[in-house]
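Milestone 3.1: sequence recovery, worked example.
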């Protein structure tokens, strides 16, 4: 009989605990994502020839590999925001990011280099051109100028058609954003 009373007491205590209102702790608001736009024309002297303005590149790092993306193709660089889960199981696609003028598909730059490298740490989202594609990577430097004479250009490449060439100083790959977007749309669909 004593065991039955103990069991009833345990159930009663459990129900009392469940039914007692709990004051929920106040949660801190989610951190605000600030969109930062690069405006390369502001730091370039107005007398600079157009060719020199086209030599500015954003250095993106993915899985230890450094790639230069032309600043003319970069719309925004932001801290990695929360992403909507992807519709695809392809490791390249990390998801989608909604922004004020639409939606950008986020691609893992490390997985673009090689599917084996997917999941490398990323802290930055680089929004490209018309804001429909973005690259997840690490950007820890300001844009740099690359001399076109110091780039070994590729042409007719069968693999990685988006890799336009290699810069000797700083040592990095140079991305052709048009070819990259074409490749992403073939790989992941429009």
């Amino acid at each position: 009989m004593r065991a039955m009373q103990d069991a009833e007491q345990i159930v009663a205590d459990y129900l009392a605990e469940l039914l007692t209102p709990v004051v929920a702790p106040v949660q801190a608001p989610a951190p605000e994502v600030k969109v930062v736009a690069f405006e390369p024309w502001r730091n370039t002297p107005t007398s600079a020839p157009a060719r020199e303005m086209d030599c500015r590149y954003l250095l993106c790092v993915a899985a230890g590999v450094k790639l230069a993306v032309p600043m003319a193709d970069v719309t925004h660089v932001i801290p990695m925001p929360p992403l909507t889960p992807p519709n695809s199981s392809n490791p390249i696609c990390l998801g989608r990011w909604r922004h004020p003028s639409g939606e950008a598909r986020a691609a893992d730059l490390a997985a673009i280099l090689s599917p084996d490298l997917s999941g490398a740490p990323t802290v930055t989202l680089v929004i490209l051109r018309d804001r429909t594609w973005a690259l997840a990577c690490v950007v820890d430097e300001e844009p740099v100028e690359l001399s076109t004479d110091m780039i070994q250009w590729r042409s007719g490449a069968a693999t990685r058609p988006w890799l336009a060439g290699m810069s000797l100083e700083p040592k990095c790959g140079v991305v052709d954003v048009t070819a990259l977007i074409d490749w992403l749309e073939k790989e992941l669909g429009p």
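The helical segments are 2-19, 50-53, 109-113, 177-188. The chain is about 20% helix and 30% strand.
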